[in-house]
Amino acid sequence: MSEPDPPGSATPPPDPGTPGPEEDELASLDPGRRAVLRLLSAVVLVWHRTRRGSGLSVGRHVIANHRLIVKGPGTVVIGDRANVFAFGAGRRTRLVVHSPDAVIRIGSNVRINGGELHAAKSIEIGANSIIGQAFITDTDGHSMRGDRRTNRSAPVRTAPVVLEHNVWIARDAAILPGVRVGAGSVVAYGAVVVDDVPPNVLVAGNPARVVRRLDDAAP
Questions:
Q1: What is the CA radius of gyration of the chain?
Q2: Quick check: 187 and 193 in contact, CB under 8 A?
Q3: Catalytic positions, please?
Q4: Which tens digits make up the pLDDT trace of 88-123?
């Protein structure tokens, strides 16, 4: 059973319209392939949970394959019906928590295909979001100070990252420390996001800027 979301989490309360276990993306597969994928997912997730113990919480009907990598001393929480199955040459879905207090929290019905997430503090992915082969980090990894190669105690910026629900992060995009992406927004291919993104907009470029607002009628 997955852990409940804390107050202020990026994952909204359950929606009565959210697809149930039998309405998920496996429903379109023939029974044989569906059974094989469910068995593969179960084997992979049991292996990871055995290795990580309380450091990994997995909800119901999660889809995964052998290309899922979970590393580090922190905690990873994967919500119900999330799909972290990576396909494509060389792709891996990487969830890395760099400190004992670090948390990656993935909401329900999230799709991650080959995305790479690195948390030193906190990354939250809201329900129904899509993440392609993108890079998301809440830490710079190295200090910005000039003495970073000679001073091991040089400070490194770390700031939580939040993707609200129904966000799409396209391939080769980067979400950098401290960013909050508003609900319903889309981050275009190769965009580098250094500032907060409002809800329901398309952003693109380096650094990313708002291209236009989105609505349900637009393609």
A1: 17
A2: yes
A3: 142
A4: 767 899 999 999 999 999 999 999 999 999 999 999
